[in-house]
Structures are given as structure tokens and as C-alpha cells.
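forwarding from the other thread:

> can someone predict this with magnesium ion?

sure thing
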Amino acid sequence: MKQPDNLQSGFSRWKRVSVIVSFLLTFALVGSFYGVQAQERSSDTPNFIIIFTDDQGYGDVGVYGHPTIKTPNLDRMAFEGQKWTNFYVAANVCTPSRAGLLTGRLPIRSGMCSDTRRVLFPDSDGGLPQNEVTIAETLKEQGYATAAIGKWHLGHLPQYLPTNQGFDTYYGIPYSNDMDLVTDKGYMDFWQQPIDSIVTENFNVPLMRDTSIIERPADQTTITKRYTQEAVRFISENKDKPFFIYLAHSLPHIPLFVSNDFKGISKRGLYGDVIEEIDWSVGEIMKTLKAEGVDQNTLVVFTSDNGPWLIFGENGGSAGLLYGGKGTSYEGGVREPAIFWWPGTIEPAVVSKMGSTLDLLPTLTQLAGGKLPEDREYDGYDLTPVLHGQDVTPREEMIYYHGTKIFAARKGDHKLYFYSNNPLGYPEKLEKLEKYKLYNLAIDPSEKEDIIDQHPEMVKEIEAMVAAHEKTVKPVESQLEKVIGQVEATGNK
Ligand code: MG
């Protein structure tokens, strides 16, 4: 009697196993089918927009404390998203700052900094090397449509343009809007005249589409408007697939220009008018994302490339309560307003943890499901946990370069200075400090009280951190010191 039972139960067991196996197989097949479907569906992959202004200071946004410049759209972005108060750029001037943002690597690693030529100029023969991997390139691998709009300043020769660095399209002025100056005077003499007597024809800068010049001199009075129209069009045309827009405004870098609609609307003079037009532009982008139904699926980041250009007085911006400005690695030169907006995903908050434009490449690449190349050093971190509201940040330190020199370094709340400089940035007065200086930025954001004598242990900790960082830096050729017609370019110092 027992045998048939055993046979029966053996058969039943086999049947059960076979049912489970076929169920699992079916599940696996269906699952992989849906897995493939999910990857192809753009709604599962976020879009990214980085809005990057030029020379806008920490204090030049309403929600960052400016008393008269009105920025209702940026303020709304901040209230609905995250307002970061310890967010740093990779360098204190345009070219190296942009190289750091797009590569996730300090510019010392790519040769995009120098102690003799701080940025690229129209006579430059260098640019961001081809072997650097930009955000556009890591996202392109994940099937993104990519657009660079605005100021590039990473090389204006064909081999360095955005269309050779992972961007499908480019529209903008390839370097600073004050370059190609048409004048008999010296650069600083030119600026002695009243700002409203300066016209767009004084700057013979080109406007390019992809690799062709389409207008010269570029009409800068409508440039913010036209960059905005390009961005709006790109969103509408690419809303059904994942997209990345790098929108780098040419303004508020001097010379200042606005369209007629914004002339005289601010209580903060022409500089305020320019910021209010940029704020309008931010509002147009948010409006378009909502109208196209992709606002819940788009991360928008707003920040600036370096601090305010203080030597231009009321035509430069303000670093608010921070010390120093553009061209310095004091806080006012490198700490920037930074707003992250992604309705439905980002937890609204004021974030006082440290973050950096260096972190954008790792963060965006991770969110897109991509991977970083493993053959190089990165200086950026994935900030996704902070965006999701976790009270931790992977970034605990910041190394502040001035050209190729380490000017200062921050660990936690403490910042140690190895050099001093003219806080206005220009003329540069770089000096190695005989006695270093130490500040606690959490309680002394304006860097008023040197506390080095009270904290010798912090000096040791930060020095050890800098020494460890320096071991990872390999000398490379300086791209900024290559000049057209100059056969032998000087090396990186
Ligand atoms: Mg700048």
C-alpha cells in the first residue's frame, strides 16, 4: 500500500516542481520583457537641465537674501525643491569652473587651469581634451538627447566645441561676452565709461550654431531671450525621450545687456535687470516642463560659475555675507547659490551640507542608470541620498585651487588657508602665508575670526587630507597656456 503512495507522492512532487519551474520560467520571461520595456520608456528615466549663470554672486537671488532684486521663479524653485547653502564650484573663474562641472574632476587633472592665463581667450589653441568624459557623454551612452546652450568657454576651435564633447547640438557664444573687445583703449580704461554707453557692437563675439558662426557680433541685448527660446524648443521637441540641457547663460558677466522688456525694471540698476531677465527665463523653463507634462520627471539644477566680479562695483554682483569675490578662493569667490528642483521626488529643504558642481556628473550619471569610467580619478560624489532627503552627504571636504595652487582646503566646518590674495580678485596679490589661517565656517561664514591657535589638531587633519589628495594628481599639459601661432606651449606648473 505504501509503494503506490510513495510513487503517487513522488509523482505529485515532480509535478509540483515542474509547475513551479514553468511558473518561474514564465515569470522570468515576462519580467525580462517588461524589464526591456521599462528601459525603453523615457518616463522611467529622468531628464536633466543645468542652468549655469556667469559671475552671479551668492547674494544675488531673492531667496538667498538680496533685498531688492526680485527672483520669484528661483524663489519658488527653492521653496518647492532644495536650497543649498554650502555649494561650491570647482574654481574661481569661468574656464576651470566649467571644466570641473562637466567632467566631475578638478581642473588640475584635465589641464584646464593655469597660473599665467586664468581662462581661455580668443587666441587660445587649447580646450577640454578629448579624453575627458563629460556629463553629456555619460548620458549619451544612456540614450539621452543632449543640448549645450549659451557660454561654452572650454575651447572655441572645432575640435573642442560642444558637438565634439557629447552634445548633439550647440547654440551660443563660445567664450566670455567681454572678449573680442573693439576699442583703442586698454581693457580697464574701456570700462571707465558709463555702462549704458557700452553697446553690443563693442564686443565682436560670435554666436554659433553647432560649429558655424551665424551672427557676429552677437546681439547681446536679446541673448538671454534667445537662449531661453532654444531651451524651450529643445524641451518640446524631445519630451518623449530622456534629454539633458546644459544652459549656461552668458550673463550677468559684464558687459550687461537686457532686452527692452526688462530695461529699468529692477531697483538694483542694470545688474538687477539682467538677473530679473534670467529669473524670467527660469520661469519659462519651469512653465514649459509643466505644459509638456514632464516636470515630475525632470531634475533642474540652478547655480553660477563663480562669485561676483567685485571690481566692477554696481555692475558686478554681491556675495552677500561671504568674503571676497570672483578670482579668489575665499568663500565669496567659490560658494554659489544652488537650487535643485524635481517636483514629487526631491524633498523640499534647506541643505547646509556640502555639495559641489563636481558632484553633478556622478549624480546625474547614476540617476540615468549609467556608470563612470573606472580609469580615472573623480573629485565628485553622488548626491542622490541628499536629494531624497537623507541627512547625510558623501562630501565632507573641498579643495580650493587657485590656478594650479591649493589656496585652501575645507574639512567639515573648518577651512584652512595656505595663501592670501586681494579679496577683490584683481589685481591679483597671491602670497603664501607664513602662518596659515583657520576659520569655522558654520559659525563664522564671513571668515572674520582666525582660530588657528585654538585648533592645532584641525590643521594637522586638513594638511593630511591635502597631502593625500596631492598624491592622486598627475601632472598634465596645460590647455590654457597654448596660444595660436605659438609652437611650444609651456607645461603645467
Ligand atoms: Mg564666470
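Residues 62 and 71 are 5 Å apart (CA to CA). thats all i got for now
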